Amino acid sequence: MEKAGKPAVGLVAGGFERNAMATARSFGLPEFRFALVPEVMTGLAPQQIEQQVTDALDRIVEVLTTHPQPAASQETTSTERINIESTDSYAAVEKMNQQFLDLEWGDGFPLIPPTPEKVARMLTGTTRKPDDLITVLAPGSGLATVEKIAVNAVMAGCEPVHLPILIAACEAYMGLGERVRALSMSTSPMAPLMVINGPITKEIGINAKGCAMGPGLQSRHNIVLGRAFRLIMINIGNCRPGRMDLDTIGSARKFGMCVAENEEQSPWDPYPIEKGYAKDANTVTIFATRDEIDVNDLNNWTPEGVLNSFSFYGAIPGGDYLEKIHAGDDPDFVLLLMFSPEHANICGSAGWSKKAVREYVFQECRASARRLLNKCRNAPDKIRLHWRWLLKLPDWELEKIMLPVMENAHDIEMVVVGGPAGKDLIYRSICRPATALIKDRGTI
Amino acid sequence: MYTLEVLNPVALNEGDTKITNAAPRPRSLDGLTLGLLWNSKRGGEVALNKAGELVSGRFKNVKVIRYDGSMPCDPEIMDRAKQECDVFIGSSAD
Q1: Closest Cα of chain B to A366: distance in Å?
Q2: Cβ of A26 and B15 within 8 Å?
Q3: Distance from the B61 Cα atom to the nearest Cα atom in chain A, whole angstroms
Q4: What whole-number distance in Å separates Cα of residue A325 and Cα of residue B69?
Q5: Are A352 and A274 in contact (CB under 8 A)?
Q6: pLDDT tens for each residue of B34-73
Q7: Residues in B touching A190 (Cβ below 8 Å)
Q8: What pLDDT, on the 0 to 100 scale, is given for residue A78?
Q9: Which chain A residues have a beta carbon less than 8 Å from that of B22?
Q10: Residue A422 distance to chain B (closest CA, Å)
Q11: A30 in contact with B at a CB cutoff of 8 Å?
């Protein structure tokens, strides 16, 4: 509104002040001002909220009727080259790490120094020019040039072969659309999951099999790729805790998640083929995950038995489709079924296509209307008109009405990952995934 | 003495290159139309309704219009609000 020449004031809760200013800066409004209220309002009773606003009235009026002081000088990103001086090389690396951590440039783990030589070598991984702008990265509207991506890749421990994957990951991330802001800024522990497909996975050795999402030698490429993407989110997207990452508790998933699809042991086409990519295309897909659920079922050997377990574990009420919270057609609730090869083949060898699996899980993955309504019944105005009849029913009747936990079967996604055991994962996700081609690979 | 040279990992942000200054302020809110912008997070609407009531009580002839948006807000709602109002209060509930 300020950009349209209209004075505006935001009501900002305590603890979100840095976020308010960082967001304003990312939109080019360094003079933005707000009226502080002590507590987040989502969990307060109406009278408490009203008291907070009453106490903030003078500030609201002040912001709307007085011009701001000139904006304080912007946070500097210092110079492009930084000299760290110390007694010896080891001490210098330690000093750099402390300095970067103090500046909120790290993820908490030791960083590899991004020396000019290391970065120059990293840049050989792509044919793109260092100053090519790949995208403007949310939430902080950071200019994601090839060189900035490369610097962060070095810090994470990546090799040049990883750089084109990270470039594609940035493109896929922004391909998520407006929900990328929720993925990066939410008070819930949202985290991007990178799934890599194509011949590149074998060429490099990105793990698609046992413990692909876990620590250790077998997943060394997965680990540094996931980590590099988080550093890119921090340093290019300004997705820093307390500033633009507003997570309440957090999750270990946020340090990085990257796997390859186990294409050779899957009974189905690789994931990107469903999305229209060529058979041998190298791609990165970003899933905007909310959480991770272990499907613990070693006692079924039929498609129906396996898929019932997926459905029961996945039937955690989202209910978001009952409300109109987010604009557009993008769903708020997408289920990613990460099949183990064993369970995928139980379905595939019995002739079940991905479409059949989706339809089955969609029908079985249900929760009671009472549960689905629980988190939206205090804001009845936001419940979609065609669901408001539910509000008239007593709880005992709502408990008997079983509704799908999502709106459409096609919002169930499937990939095959993992080693030789029938253990699967479900990732509840907040929007449809996005895929980008890995291209412009250097001749390393 | 050892010198370690490293490159800065932090990117410029687009906002730094396209700065907009704050809009001109009125001396008083008398006679103005106040827009209340809600993003649909619970509690925000309660805060905004109260803010509208309090501003109307302090100033003369204030017209208040609430806009119930979403995340992100439908551009049509934002455009209509810009046309209809002079000043705004927004709440995301956090």
Answers
A1: 25
A2: yes
A3: 15
A4: 8
A5: no
A6: 999 988 787 888 999 999 999 999 999 999 999 987 766 7
A7: none
A8: 53
A9: 2, 7, 29, 31-33, 67-68
A10: 39
A11: yes
Q: A286-299: per-residue pLDDT in tens?
A: 999 999 999 998 89
Find chain A residues with C-beta within 8 A of B36's C-beta.
none
DSSP string, A215-273: SSGGGHHHHHHHHHHHHHHHHTT---BTTTB--SS--GGGG--EEE--GGG-SS--HHH
Mutate to test the interface with A, among B2, B13, B80 (most CBs of A within 10 A): B13
3-state secondary structure of A196: strand
Would B36 be classed as within a structural domain?
yes
- Using an 8 Å Cβ cutoff, are A397 and A296 in contact? no
Structural domain contains residue B70:
yes
Give the residue on B whose Cα is nearest the Cα of A9. Answer: B89
A119–B18 CB contact, under 8 Å? no
Instruction: Give the model's pLDDT for residue A76.
Output: 47
- SS3 at position A370: helix
Residue-wise over A158-179: b if at least 16 C-beta within 10 A, else e?
A: bbbbbbbbbbbbbbbbbbbebb
Q: Is residue A21 part of a domain?
A: yes
Q: Which domain holds residue A53?
A: 2-65
Number of structural domains, chain A? Answer: 1
How many domains in chain B? 1
Contacts of B70 in chain A (CB under 8 A): 324-327
Residue A74 has pLDDT above 70, yes or no: no
Range of the domain at B38: 28-91
**Residue A272 falls inside a structural domain:** no
**Pairing, β A133-137 against β A81-86:** unpaired
Q: Is B4 close to A83, i.e. CB distance below 8 A? A: yes
Could you give the CA distance from residue A191 to residue A211 in angstroms, rounded to a whole number?
Answer: 19
The answer as to whether B4 is a domain residue is no
Residue B7 domain-assigned (yes or no): no
